[in-house]
Design goal:
Layout lengths: L1 H17 L8 E2 L3 E4 L4 E3 L8 E6 L5 H17 L6 E5 L11 H11 L5 E3 L4 H6 L3 E2 L1 E8 L2 E8 L15 H10 L14 E2 L5
Length: 199
């Protein structure tokens, strides 16, 4: 019995460590993932960017679907100001075939995504960031030392109704950074579907 309890505790600890990820003020590692246009994309490719709005999302999750238009709007508003959206699908397609790479291509074309939609096939990027939900947002700012994590959490305060949103967390964070100010709300709870981790 003690061995089972110890094993469960160890498993919980390992899972917690696996998804510990980034904290506010920490540097995010760059990555290289395949985009829906079959080209490899890394953050280093964006030489003129001031930062990034990295969003872990997917095809099948109802929350991700509800946020698609808002994510497109974020990219249209902030890419030209130096903070492009980088969308990443980390889900295990073996569990949800609608999240496979070909389905990602189809969805990006249907919705006319204006941003990269990258396939995190090994789930290493999601693990490194500490993403747990779809959608889950990480706002990064380019600084001398690298990409500094400035905001982690939800897009806004109303996943169900875009018209009823009162707090636009991502917009507030990016607006503050663009004006040279500190982000007031640095962390919120990401609301969405759990990332489907490989078994």
């Amino acid at each position: 019995m003690k061995r089972i309890v110890l094993l469960l505790a160890l498993t919980t600890a390992l899972l917690s460590f696996k998804h510990q990820g980034l904290h506010i003020g920490e540097l995010a590692d760059d990555f290289k993932l395949k985009n829906v246009d079959d080209k490899m994309v890394s953050l280093a490719d964006y030489k003129d960017a001031k930062g990034f709005i990295v969003i872990f999302t997917c095809n099948h999750c109802p929350f991700s679907v509800k946020y698609e238009d808002r994510i497109i709007a974020l990219d249209k508003k902030y890419a030209k100001k130096g903070f492009p959206v980088i969308a990443i699908n980390p889900n295990d397609a073996a569990q949800y075939p609608s999240d496979d790479f070909e389905s990602m291509k189809k969805r990006a074309k249907e919705k006319k995504f204006t941003f990269p939609y990258l396939h995190d096939e090994t789930q290493a990027v999601a693990t490194g960031f500490g993403a747990t939900k779809t959608p889950h947002v990480f706002v990064l700012q380019k600084e001398t030392d690298g990409l500094v994590t400035k905001y982690i959490g939800a897009v806004d305060d109303n996943s169900d109704n875009a018209k009823a949103v009162k707090e636009k967390y991502v917009e507030a964070a990016v607006d503050a950074l663009l004006s040279g100010q500190s982000v007031t709300v640095t962390e919120t709870k990401a609301i969405g579907c759990s990332i489907k981790w490989k078994k």
